[in-house]
């Protein structure tokens, strides 16, 4: 663990020994002392060790920064991460002149000592996961190269830190702060973007902070989201006909009192909900709409469907959002008393729900801490700490009648007050240099002057060239800010730019609603009907026959599979209804038999669908999966066939195919349970299917189960949310001939690593892996260490090291888990 090169007699290791005080037997000449993972609350007596060059006190319970540290003048490396330190006294760092490496992450620091910059040798400084509001004291550290300040309460970074000449910073990580200056999107681009931002600020300062609020309207179907959205925009009630259901997402803008609102109205039906993750971005204002007239205080399901489901999903996906509850249809309630009763009931239940979640996480933390070997769970404990730090703000419910003008006005001013209150909505303002504003204005101007096509799809490079005609900026200056600006505009909902998808990163969608319209043509509750309605002419354009249409309809209905030719027809029809004579655009979006279009790339990227070969039998010749072996041939090649078909798990109706192939569970099946905390998010399993199946040449899928096959070995993945603690089970079956036993575990591990990659898309989620104890009648599980490491660890060693003991005291033979040892 210690990077310094110390001879063994100078190194003293007393880590992980549950010590509450410094051990007596540490030799005075010790150079490197490892005390991590103990139970120290104070560090008294450390000043005797004046030869120490390095000390590791991480993962203890220290509450005060040890004052005696100032005596350790030879100290070069100091680890104090994962403690409970709240403050650091003055007069310590000026004595630590040789200190190069300082790790103080995961503490409770609110302030830095003003003299920290007198510790002039510091090269590496980790202050992430604290509560710091200001890091100005760091200005003046001449050798600082790497600065980590993620997940604090910083609203600004000191510009002096990034001026050439005053410091040598080459790495700065500052995500997870309510930053305004520079905004977080700048920090996401790394040190060069931050430097460029401050340079622009110097050249084109702006004191105005741009207040743009992405407002997402969520809630059940018919709750009144579109009505709210349109009424707010018009400042008076706008009636929405019952048959005028939102499909996908509708976007509109409102300028009010210097604030720009971007309203994203999400359709409430389930089919649409499963694509929302494509468009939900963090730190938005969420208006959760509840129809109060149909809400029941006595039926628990009512709260569950109308509120719990939504808050839970928001919490799992964007845990740092602010949720404003709005109760509609008040006029259809009996009287004011009923409205108030429902309001109180909802608020009370929301409070209980949030408190319960917290309690579950805390209990889970205690369970892990009390385990025989808590150090195995260090990473999971950190993750739980992170979840506990997230604080979804749910504001009180505002009851309104959408048909009354006073109520619409009341809601508008309520929203204004909420976002202007800093404590509620920290993220609404970003301070941008004037040049950024000019570039954004230019983009809008170009669009309204039709220099950017109406559909808004344009290459980043072409956009850059057009902007240069409107804004007086050098090509280099524009180049240095354009990517940030696109990232920023994407986050606030003005444009859509999928920077992370390599096939699309060179394209910007200036008009997000166009993109959504394309989505709507495929992801919709009545897709079967749409497909049935495809005309002969449209079929001919694609070179298809009426007979084929019936096959498509049948495959979609029975197997949740949509042929790409059918997809092309539906999307083309959707586009042509909007835009005429844009053949190139149609090809770009829809694709051809040989080349995948934008829409298919997006649907696959966001795991809405999985390219698939339907059916297939066991193939004993299929290559064995060897983790880490890049040469392994998976279904990937078949995957990107634009003339193939795609499986849409959202359209799957049952599990019959899987049940039929798998039969009954067997006693000697190996099984692993992955528990998700606080629960498995809605739509998660669909994406599990998409991710895992894409790895295997042969698979069968059902609504909550999928069966994978590699060679002649079978692996079943299924969701179980019927028990109190929901889990995903991975069951693997011995083949008749035993020679492939090792691969069973490989299959399991491969599926698990996919599961964990996927679970990272839900920042409000954590998971734990268990293997049920095979001892007859034993209800306990073997708990595994954190599997997140799977991707970057040699997991053969990881598994080998495990000594699995269940709470009933049974040990599991490791060779059963890892037969390579035999
Ligand atoms: N009387 C009354 N009717 C309302 C109120 N709010 C909404 N409505 C009506 O309820 C119906 C559904 O409203 P929408 O705004 O379309 O609901 P939505 O949540 O957007 O529904 P989806 O598009 O399916 O997601 C419409 O006919 C509205 O006019 C209200 O406060 N009072």
From TrEMBL:
Q: Indicate the segments annotated as coiled coil, or none if absent.
A: none
Task: Please give one Gene Ontology molecular function term for this protein.
Answer: nucleotide binding
Q: What are the record keywords, sorted?
A: Leucine-rich repeat, Nucleotide-binding, Repeat
* Gene Ontology, cellular component aspect: cytoplasm
Listed InterPro entries? Leu-rich_rpt (IPR001611), Leu-rich_rpt_typical-subtyp (IPR003591), LRR_dom_sf (IPR032675), LRR_domain-containing (IPR050216), P-loop_NTPase (IPR027417), ROC (IPR020859), WH-like_DNA-bd_sf (IPR036388)
Roc domain location: 206-422
Database matches in Pfam families: LRR_8, Roc
- Record PROSITE patterns: LRR (PS51450), ROC (PS51424)
Instruction: Please provide the Gene Ontology terms (biological process) for this protein.
Output: regulation of signal transduction
- Its protein name is Malignant fibrous histiocytoma-amplified sequence 1 homolog
* Species of the source: Xyrichtys novacula (Pearly razorfish)
């Amino acid at each position: 663990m210690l990077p310094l090169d110390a001879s063994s007699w100078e190194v003293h290791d007393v880590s992980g020994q549950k010590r509450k005080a410094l051990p007596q037997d540490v030799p005075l000449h010790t150079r490197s002392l490892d005390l991590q993972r103990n139970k120290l609350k104070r560090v008294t007596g450390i000043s005797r060790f004046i030869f120490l060059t390095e000390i590791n006190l991480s993962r203890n319970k220290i509450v005060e920064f040890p004052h005696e540290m100032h005596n350790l003048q030879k100290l070069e490396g100091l680890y104090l991460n994962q403690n409970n330190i709240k403050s650091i006294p003055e007069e310590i760092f000026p004595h630590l002149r040789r200190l190069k490496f300082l790790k103080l992450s995961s503490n409770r620091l609110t302030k830095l000592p003003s003299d920290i910059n007198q510790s002039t040798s510091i090269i590496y400084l980790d202050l992430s996961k604290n509560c710091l509001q200001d890091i100005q004291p760091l200005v003046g550290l001449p050798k600082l190269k790497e600065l980590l300040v993620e997940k604090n309460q910083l609203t600004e970074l000191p510009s002096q830190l990034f001026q050439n000449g005053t410091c040598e910073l080459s790495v700065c990580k500052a995500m997870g702060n309510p930053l305004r200056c520079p905004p977080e999107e700048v920090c996401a681009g790394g040190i060069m973007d931050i430097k460029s931002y401050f340079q622009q600020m110097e050249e084109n300062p702006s004191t105005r902070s741009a207040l743009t609020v992405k407002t997402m309207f969520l809630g059940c179907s018919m709750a009144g989201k579109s009505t709210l959205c349109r009424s707010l925009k018009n400042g008076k009630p706008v009636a929405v006909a019952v048959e005028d259901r939102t499909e996908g997402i509708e976007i509109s803008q409102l300028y009010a009192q210097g604030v720009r609102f971007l309203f994203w109205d999400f359709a409430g039906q389930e089919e649409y909900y499963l694509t929302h993750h494509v468009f939900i971005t963090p730190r938005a204002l969420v208006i959760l709409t509840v129809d109060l007239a149909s809400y029941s205080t006595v039926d628990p399901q009512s709260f569950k469907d109308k509120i719990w489901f939504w808050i839970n999903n928001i919490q799992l996906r964007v845990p740092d959002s602010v949720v404003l509850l709005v109760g509609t249809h008040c006029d259809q309630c009996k009287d004011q008393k009923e409205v108030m009763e429902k309001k109180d009931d909802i608020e009370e239940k929301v409070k209980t729900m949030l408190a319960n979640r917290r309690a579950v996480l805390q209990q889970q933390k205690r369970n892990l801490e009390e385990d025989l070997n808590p150090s195995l769970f260090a990473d999971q404990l950190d993750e739980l700490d992170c979840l506990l730090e997230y604080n979804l703000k749910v504001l009180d419910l505002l009851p309104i009648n959408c048909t009354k003008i006073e109520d619409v006005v009341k809601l508008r001013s309520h929203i204004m007050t909420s976002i202007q209150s800093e404590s509620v909505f920290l993220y609404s303002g970003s301070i941008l240099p004037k040049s950024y504003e000019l570039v954004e204005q230019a983009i809008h101007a170009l669009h309204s002057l039709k220099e950017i096509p109406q559909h808004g799809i344009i290459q980043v490079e072409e956009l850059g060239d057009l902007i240069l005609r409107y804004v007086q900026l050098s090509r280099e200056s524009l180049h240095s800010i354009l990517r940030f600006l696109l990232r920023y505009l994407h986050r606030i909902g003005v444009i859509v730019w999928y920077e992370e998808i390599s096939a699309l990163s060179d394209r910007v969608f200036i008009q997000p609603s166009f993109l959504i319209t394309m989505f709507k043509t495929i992801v919709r509750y009545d897709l079967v009907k749409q497909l049935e309605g495809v005309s002969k002419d449209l079929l001919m354009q694609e070179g298809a026959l009426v007979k084929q249409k019936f096959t498509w309809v049948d495959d979609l209905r029975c197997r949740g599979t949509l042929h790409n030719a059918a997809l092309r027809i539906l999307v083309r029809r959707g586009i042509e209804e909007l835009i005429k004579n844009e053949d190139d655009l149609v090809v770009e979006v829809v694709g051809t038999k040989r080349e995948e279009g934008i829409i298919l790339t997006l649907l696959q990227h966001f795991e809405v669908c999985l390219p698939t070969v339907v059916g297939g039998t066991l193939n004993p010749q299929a290559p064995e999966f060897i983790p880490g072996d890049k040469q392994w041939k998976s279904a990937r090649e078949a995957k990107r066939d634009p003339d193939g078909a795609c499986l849409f798990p959202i359209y799957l109706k049952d599990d019959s195919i899987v049940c039929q192939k798998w039969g009954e569970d067997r006693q000697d099946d190996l099984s692993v349970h992955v528990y998700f905390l606080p629960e498995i998010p809605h739509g998660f399993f669909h994406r599990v299917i998409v991710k895992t199946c894409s790895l295997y040449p042969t698979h069968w899928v059902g609504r909550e189960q999928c069966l994978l096959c590699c060679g002649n070995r079978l692996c079943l993945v299924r969701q179980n949310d019927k028990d109190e603690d929901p889990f995903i089970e991975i069951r693997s079956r011995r083949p008749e001939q035993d020679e492939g036993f090792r691969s069973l575990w490989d299959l399991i591990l491969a599926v698990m690593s996919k599961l964990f990659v996927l679970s990272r898309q839900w920042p409000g989620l954590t998971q734990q892996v268990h293997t049920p104890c095979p001892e007859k009648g034993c209800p306990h599980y073997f708990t595994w260490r954190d599997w997140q490491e799977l991707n970057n660890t040699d997991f053969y060693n990881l598994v080998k090291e495990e000594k699995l003991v269940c709470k009933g005291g049974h040990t599991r033979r490791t060779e059963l888990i890892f037969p390579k040892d035999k």
